[in-house]
Amino acid sequence: MNSRERFLAACAGAKLDRPPIWVMRQAGRYLPEYRALKASSSFLEMVRTPDLATEVTLQPLRRFALDAAILFSDILVIPEALGQGYKFRDTGGIEMEFRIESRAQIDALAPAEAVPERLEYVAATLRRLKGELAGTRALLGFGGSPWTLATYMLEGGSSEDFERSKLLFYTDRPAFDALLERITAALIVYFRMQIAAGADAIQIFDSWGGIIAGRDYRDASLRWIEQIVAALPAEFPVILYAKGTAPHLADQAASGVRVVSVDWTQDLAAVRRALPATVAVQGNLDPVLLNTSPAIVQREASRLLASMRGANGHIFNLGHGIMPHAKIECMQALVDTVTGWQN
After folding, report:
1. What is the DSSP string of 179-247?
2. CB environment 316-337: b (16+ within 10 A), e (fewer)
3. pLDDT tens for residues 111-143?
4. CA distance 298 to 310
5. 294-307 vs 328-339: helix axis angle to the nearest 10?
């Protein structure tokens, strides 16, 4: 069984001799080769240039025996394709070209049909990656959830309180729904494009799902995700990662996704027992551990693996993205611990 086969078997709920492993943000600032490339090319240039995006995607696979590659891109390519560009603030965080303040601006967004042409560079990168991987490792595409993308579009960038997004949800539901419908339609086209270009699975990042009141999570976020999953090929592996949404894990598992990715605050073995066996789980080592020492990483990863011994459908990952100051030797210890594990 090669890495790609192992990953897809885990998505299908199989019991394996060891779980497959990949890591959110496995390509990026903690790698010296990424920093060297970044010195001559901006982040947006790398995202938009298939040769560069392919190179960045493959960098961690050259160092570590990971079972999957994940496309190097950004969730905000969808707002950009709809006509709302983005950039990175000098002080940190995201800044959109403008913020949506009216229904007229929502109605003026580009249609979903514009996505394939405007994001052809993403499809080109996936096709290159598919050829490079040659079926040996799984290839993941991804995108943001409609709710998470809407928060950036409504706030005008990164936010601490998400006030404008919540106000629109509570005070003008028709406008809110119109925006989410636009984003959802665009994501359906985008994910179908990624699948056609060779993605073996899609991860949806509902990064800000945890900031909406519990009783309103379905209307603000989950129902739109359900629409996306229903529009994709039957049984295609969709992974949902929604930080801070522990009370909704059962609902997420019932949404049609094949894998629920769990943040580090949850007992993964307890989550595994609580969810249907037909839905796999992903996670969920605390990313800060990769800033400690190889011995600590080995100890804590082994504890997590032992807690999941014999469980079906487990993909090993962090409970959030790898941190910029993660240590190479800690990442190596993590991969070695998981790939050397015997259930």
Report:
1. HHHHHHHHHHHHHHHHHHHT-SEEEEE-TTGGGS-GGGHIIIIIHHHHHHHHHSPTT--EEEE-TT-GG
2. bbbbbbbbeebbeebbebbbbb
3. 999 999 999 999 999 999 999 999 999 999 999
4. 19
5. 30
Give the separation between CA 234 and CA 108, rounded to whole angstroms: 32
Tell the residue number behind the tokens 């990769």, with chain if given: 290
Q: Which residues contact 235 (CB under 8 A, 6 or more apart)?
A: 258
Question: What CA–CA distance (Å, rounded) separates 166 from 160?
Answer: 12
* Domains recognised in the chain with CATH numbers: 3-339 (3.20.20.210)
In terms of pTM, does the model score above 0.85?
A: yes
Q: What pLDDT is stored for residue 201 in this prediction?
A: 98
| C-alpha torsion 36→37→38→44, nearest 10 | -170
